[in-house]
Write a structure and sequence with these properties.
The protein is 77% helix and 0% strand. It is mainly alpha-helical.
Length: 111
């Protein structure tokens, strides 16, 4: 079976898209393993259910692959835009970073 590291075991407020993609891949792998384990069992109804499940899994895997590719593309575009902004406006970027650091420091200090 697959290694289980589902984000439900962590703090729900810290769940990221990457964790969700990983968790979904674990679920898909487990479903595929279940389908393989039940391959020799069965009747016509089980065979039909397996066929529908395999079709659904294939569709979901394709959609997840597309979503993952889109996420990577958006992340790269955001990183490139940030890099261009920092190179074009270095002093403003330093000011923004310093401001964010001060706010984070104040929030941490309040605890």
């Amino acid at each position: 079976m697959s290694t289980r590291n589902l984000s439900a075991e962590t703090d729900p407020s810290e769940v990221t898209k990457e964790q969700l993609v990983h968790d979904f891949k674990v679920v898909v792998a487990d479903a595929e393993a279940l389908l393989k384990a039940t391959a020799g069992h069965g009747g016509e109804a089980v065979a039909a259910a397996r066929a529908r499940a395999e079709e659904s899994l294939a569709s979901v895997k394709a959609k997840m692959s597309e979503a993952e590719a889109a996420l990577v593309a958006r992340t790269k575009a955001a990183a490139k835009a940030t890099d261009e902004y920092v190179h074009g406006h270095p002093w403003q970027a330093i000011g923004i970073a310093a401001s964010v650091g001060v706010v984070i420091g104040l929030l941490i200090g309040r605890r």
